């Protein structure tokens, strides 16, 4: 007790707050601005620069924090936060160094890539977006925050909101697809889920929207590559989800690797200051991506001192791993290349984030071992993950109602992804315990029940090329490559097929074939698996393709030949159960694509909200026309459009109406449509509304998503769905980058995907 009182006295004497040992006894401290100003007045320049430094934790094991390489810097006040350290025990040890051994006892931030769940893992973000359900998406982030915070984490590098229209880029898996409107809704939902509008809660964490900006549009779809586009495209097509996150109150922003207007984003003052802070009013702090500052050297922006000063003056506050701020800013300050006011503002923003998180009141707020034991990977969270995962799956084809399967007879489950639980969580699942994931084989056996016989054969490896498979199965995402010959593997598969009533082929990408630095030039299923699938089709048995992928694939051949295709993405730790729930009809599929599936990689980039040329194709059959904007060897339209997704039931759209054919700038229109479930199953349908601005001062897309509602209809039920249209739905950035709505004619389309043909029109008057 005596020692605790001494420690309490010392803490109060230096900073005016107590270093408490349990989360229950928080102390009152001064208001934020006053507290931060007082603390900064006590800080040396070295301590200020330390707050701007975000190193990785290295290999710190429990009980060895004090002897780790980073411990010395923490004790000297040279670290503002750490990332990639996991567990209450480890984090508490490291935090103890900061708040008991450093001079000013400033607590650390602890960040992690909590991208689509923590130990309870949800579908990859691209899959999650296909639910089109903002409540479910927000709930997934809330559960992730609950689990991460229970394990000591208080900051996540999520959501990633980069719009991408080129699935060659591997990180399309980590985003929400091609559409700025839908992406904006998801960005808001994710921020609200993580932060819960109140960072003082012990189960909320600081969100970090990334990657600002334009990271999803690299040339050639190659990761980290050059991005070059007009400002009008930036503001209309790529910026909206970032701004939505800022408007939702996101606490931090991560700079992207790519250049913007010829200057790397990490050092781009127009981007970080003029747009983010002055135009959008962002109040939090900006962190670089991993080594983002020193990477500007390779971009050709100067040496480490040059690029560190460039980033600081641009409006970047925290340096992830690069240590350029820590090692060069003092010299740049002496030389007049940066101002102390700029450094002070950066420090202030980081200290304010720590204040908002309650870390000054309780540095061990996120170190409750009881929570770590009771709130992570719980039965309830897994149940929700299973339900959400099932709603992310997209039924692409279902010829002759092959699905749902019956829980009887013999099912042959064949393919390299069939018994691959380590791959089910997908890319960027760093906190997942792979042994807890559920394979498709295990899920089908469980859901089908004792009355169904399930036979399994691998059939093929991921690819004939062993080196390729090694590169595509990193980070513990092994597929346990089979050393048998391709002939032996196929023979075993055909033997299983011969004994089966129906074949479920589990094929596609491995988890790490998409994700960061996993760009592809060939988007087809690997040839080894294509050969296996063709052999299975030749048996004459009905085949269901369960397609695993982290991006839209080119499955033109498969769409022609396979009777049923269920796109499963990578659905998380409960993937096996969720996929089986859909295959057997316990859940009616309701996912809708948020990224266009091309017919050919040569069509890329491809997206629904394109603009017309002066010579658009005049026929709807995709026939080649000379001197028109088309291909000589392929149709223009995609294989599966944005918003597409089938159900086991069918939906009919009728009776579309608009309240008036004119609207003034302060008015509002109501558009209604009747949606009827005309099939034999209860089901969910995402009703989508698109608008086309017929004539503009600049060219406008052929249509843009401006509203959607996910509804539930019982068999035979009809529902009238209504949308309100205001002038805000008609605004866009013109050539002067003014956000305006221009008077004129507009068409409204409503339906089940972006090719919807039910139409009404109106005029916006002056």
TrEMBL record:
| Alphabetical keyword list | Glycosidase, Hydrolase, Signal
Q: Fetch the Gene3D superfamilies from UniProt.
A: Glycoside hydrolase family 3 C-terminal domain, Glycoside hydrolase, family 3, N-terminal domain, Immunoglobulins
Question: Per its UniProt entry, what is the enzyme's top EC class, as one word?
Answer: hydrolase
> Among its keywords, does the record have NADP?
no
Q: What is its EC number?
A: 3.2.1.21
Q: Which residues form a coiled coil?
A: none
Say if the entry is tagged with keyword Transit peptide: no
Which intervals hold domain Fibronectin type III-like? 685-754
Q: Which family does the record assign?
A: Belongs to the glycosyl hydrolase 3 family.
Q: What is this protein called?
A: beta-glucosidase
This protein's species is Flavobacterium ginsengiterrae
Give the gene symbol: bglX_2
């Amino acid at each position: 007790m005596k020692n605790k009182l001494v420690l309490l006295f010392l803490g109060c004497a230096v900073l005016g707050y107590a270093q408490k040992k349990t989360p229950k006894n928080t102390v009152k401290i001064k208001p934020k601005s006053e507290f931060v100003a007082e603390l900064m007045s006590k800080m040396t320049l070295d301590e200020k620069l330390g707050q701007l430094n975000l190193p990785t934790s290295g290999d710190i094991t429990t009980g060895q924090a004090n002897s780790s390489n980073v411990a010395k810097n923490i004790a000297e006040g040279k670290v503002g936060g750490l990332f990639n350290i996991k567990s209450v025990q480890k984090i508490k040890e490291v935090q103890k160094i900061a708040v008991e051994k450093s001079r000013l006892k400033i607590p650390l931030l602890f960040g992690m890539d909590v991208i689509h769940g923590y130990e309870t893992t949800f579908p990859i973000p691209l899959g999650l977006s296909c639910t089109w359900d903002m409540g479910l998406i927000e709930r997934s982030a809330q559960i992730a925050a609950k689990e991460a915070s229970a394990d000591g984490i208080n900051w996540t590098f999520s959501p990633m909101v980069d719009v991408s229209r080129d699935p060659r880029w591997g990180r399309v898996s980590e985003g929400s697809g091609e559409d700025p409107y839908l992406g904006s809704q998801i960005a808001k939902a994710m921020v609200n889920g993580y932060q819960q509008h109140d960072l003082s809660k012990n189960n909320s964490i600081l969100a970090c929207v990334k990657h600002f900006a334009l990271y999803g549009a690299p040339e050639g779809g190659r990761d980290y590559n050059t991005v070059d586009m007009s400002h009008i495209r930036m503001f209309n097509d790529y910026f909206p989800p970032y701004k939505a996150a800022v408007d939702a109150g996101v606490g931090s922003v991560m700079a992207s690797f790519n250049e913007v207007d010829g200057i790397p984003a990490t050092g781009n003052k127009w981007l970080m200051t003029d747009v983010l802070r002055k135009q959008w009013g962002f109040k939090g702090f900006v962190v670089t991506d991993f080594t983002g500052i020193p990477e500007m050297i390779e971009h050709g922006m100067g040496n480490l001192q040059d690029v560190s000063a460039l980033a600081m003056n641009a409006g970047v506050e925290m340096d992830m791993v690069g240590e350029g701020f820590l090692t060069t800013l003092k010299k740049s300050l002496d030389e007049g290349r940066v101002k102390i006011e700029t450094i002070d503002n950066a420090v202030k923003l980081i200290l304010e984030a720590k204040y908002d998180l309650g870390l000054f009141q309780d540095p061990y707020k996120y170190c409750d071992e009881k929570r770590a034991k009771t709130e992570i990977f719980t039965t309830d969270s897994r149940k929700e993950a299973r339900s959400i995962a099932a709603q992310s799956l997209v039924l692409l084809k279902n010829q002759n109602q092959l699905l749902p399967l019956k829980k009887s007879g013999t099912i042959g489950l064949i393919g390299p992804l069939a018994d691959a639980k380590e791959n089910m969580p997908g890319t960027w699942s760093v906190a997942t315990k792979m042994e807890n994931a559920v394979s498709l084989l295990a899920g089908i056996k469980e859901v089908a029940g004792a009355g169904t016989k399930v036979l399994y054969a691998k059939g093929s490896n991921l690819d004939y090329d062993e080196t390729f498979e090694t590169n595509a199965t990193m980070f513990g995402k092994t597929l346990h490559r089979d050393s048998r010959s391709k002939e032996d593997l196929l023979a075993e598969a055909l033997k299983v097929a011969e004994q089966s009533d129906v074949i479920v082929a589990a094929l596609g990408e491995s988890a790490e074939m998409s994700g960061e630095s996993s760009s592809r030039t060939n988007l087809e299923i690997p040839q080894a698996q294509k050969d296996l699938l063709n052999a299975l089709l030749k048996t004459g048995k009905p085949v269901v393709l369960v397609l695993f992928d982290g991006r839209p694939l080119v499955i033109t051949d498969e769409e022609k030949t396979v009777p049923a295709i269920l796109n499963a993405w990578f659905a998380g730790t409960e993937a096996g159960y969720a996929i089986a729930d859909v295959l057997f009809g316990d859940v009616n599929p309701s996912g809708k694509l948020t990224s266009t599936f091309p017919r050919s990689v040569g069509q890329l980039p491809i997206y629904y909200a394109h603009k017309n040329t002066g010579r658009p194709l005049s026929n709807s059959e995709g026939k080649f026309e000379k001197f028109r904007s088309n291909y000589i060897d392929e149709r223009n339209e995609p294989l599966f459009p944005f918003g597409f997704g089938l159900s086991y039931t069918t939906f009919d759209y009728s009776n579309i109406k608009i309240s008036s054919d004119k609207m003034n700038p302060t008015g509002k229109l109501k558009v209604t449509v009747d949606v009827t479930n005309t099939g034999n199953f209860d089901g969910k349908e995402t009703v989508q509304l698109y608008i086309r601005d017929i004539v503009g001062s600049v060219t406008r897309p052929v249509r843009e998503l401006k509203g959607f509602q996910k509804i539930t209809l019982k068999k035979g039920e009809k529902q009238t769905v209504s949308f309100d249209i205001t002038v805000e739905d008609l605004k866009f950035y013109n050539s002067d980058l003014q956000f305006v709505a221009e008077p004129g004619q507009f068409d409204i389309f409503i339906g089940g995907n972006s090719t919807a043909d039910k139409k009404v029109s109106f005029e916006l008057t002056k």
